[in-house]
Amino acid sequence: MLDTTFAALSDPTRRTILDLLAEREHSVGELVDHFPITQSAVSRHLNVLEQAALIERRRDGQRRLCALRAETLAEVDRWMERYRRMWVGKLQRLDRAIQKRAIQRRKKR
């Protein structure tokens, strides 16, 4: 599932669609208005996002509404947590080294 998710997230248009849907549900027409591409192209992006379980679509009368499925992103977040901890630790050590060096420079003056 992560491979499909990351493949879907690799496209900037799809990431922008997810950003829009993070704010609220949008109709397909509203999403189309945000991009300089055809409705057909937006629909293809929506299909990829739906297949990756990042969005869900539903009908509301004549409108097709799209909503973010945050639980799929939560799975990505859980996978990334291990790497986040590693980077936070490394950045904290770098910060301490920089602070130590700054203190040593001030003492030399």
Describe the overall structure.
The termini are far apart. A 3-stranded antiparallel beta sheet has the order 1-3-2. It contains 5 helices and 3 strands, in the order H-H-E-H-H-E-E-H. Helix 1 (2-9) packs antiparallel against helix 4. It has helices at residues 2-9, 12-23, 28-32, 39-51, 70-108; strands at 26-27, 55-60, 63-68.
What is this structure's SSE topology?
Blueprint: H1 2-9, H2 12-23, E1 26-27, H3 28-32, H4 39-51, E2 55-60, E3 63-68, H5 70-108
Antiparallel strand pairs: 1-3, 2-3
Category by helix and strand content: alpha+beta
Percentage of helical residues?
over 70%
Gap from first CA to last CA: 57 Å
Strands across the major sheet, in which order?
Answer: 1-3-2
Spans of at least 5 consecutive residues whose pLDDT stays below 50 are: none
Average the pLDDT over all residues and give the rounded result.
93
Largest sheet: 3 strands, antiparallel
Write a brief structural summary.
With 109 residues, the chain is of the alpha+beta class.
Descriptive key words:
single chain, 109 residues, alpha+beta, 5 helices
